[in-house]
Amino acid sequence: MSDDTNGPTQHEGEPHEGALGNRLNRLRAAVLGANDGVVSTAGLVVGVAGATDARGTLLTAGLAGLLAGSMSMAAGEYVSVSTQRDSEQAALALERRELATAPQAELDELTALLEGKGLTGDLAREVAEQLTEHDALRAHAEVELGIDPDELTSPWQAAGASFLAFTAGSLLPLLAIVLPPPYVRLPVTVVAVLAALVLCGWGSARMGDAPPGRAMLRNAAGGALAMAVTYGAGSLLGAAGV
Ligand SMILES: [Zn+2]
């Protein structure tokens, strides 16, 4: 890491809050979204394959599952991020009002918060005064609310990222079931899906600093169970001539 602004106390491999933390969160969300797409679309197409050999039906079902899942993920993400953004903006507006109407109380508050972080009284007061002079709202947003007023997450961006992640994950089982000849389509799909889930499990464990072995196994087992259950249900329905 060659970030000079952090000086010599910045240890290697030690994430500094903010930019890196945000990027890691986005990457983690993308892996989870892709994982969702793999599992749900794999369960869907393998279930349909239990009932029918018709490639057109498999393609239709898989594509509908891909679109339904990715739009549902995007809508959910849009709603959740919008709500979070609304409450962040309300908190910032309140802070702005308080700074305008009670600047002295706000300076005392900022001083107390900095003391709480470990600064001595005099130093906390001086830092609070300088931060207030430089950009009072930003100082309160960061120290008091823990948000960066210029880096509020965009709901549309979050929704788009979820849509893309789920779509990318869904494409794998969809292509694996539709492209190969009928007699190998199931084994190809199962192997591709399990390999992708092992990879996703490894990735999310690495990002969370957890031992990857168990995460890989659990993740693959979840997908295998989903495919086994839907394949069983599809086969029963297919055999019953539904
Ligand atoms: Zn404040």
Automatic annotation (TrEMBL):
Entry keyword annotation includes Transmembrane helix: yes
Main localisation: membrane
UniProt membrane topology term: Multi-pass membrane protein
Keyword line: Membrane, Transmembrane, Transmembrane helix
Residue runs in coiled coils: none
Localization (cell): Endomembrane system
Protein name in UniProt: Membrane protein
Transmembrane portions of the chain: 161-180, 186-205, 217-240
Transmembrane as UniProt keyword: yes
One matching Pfam family: VIT1
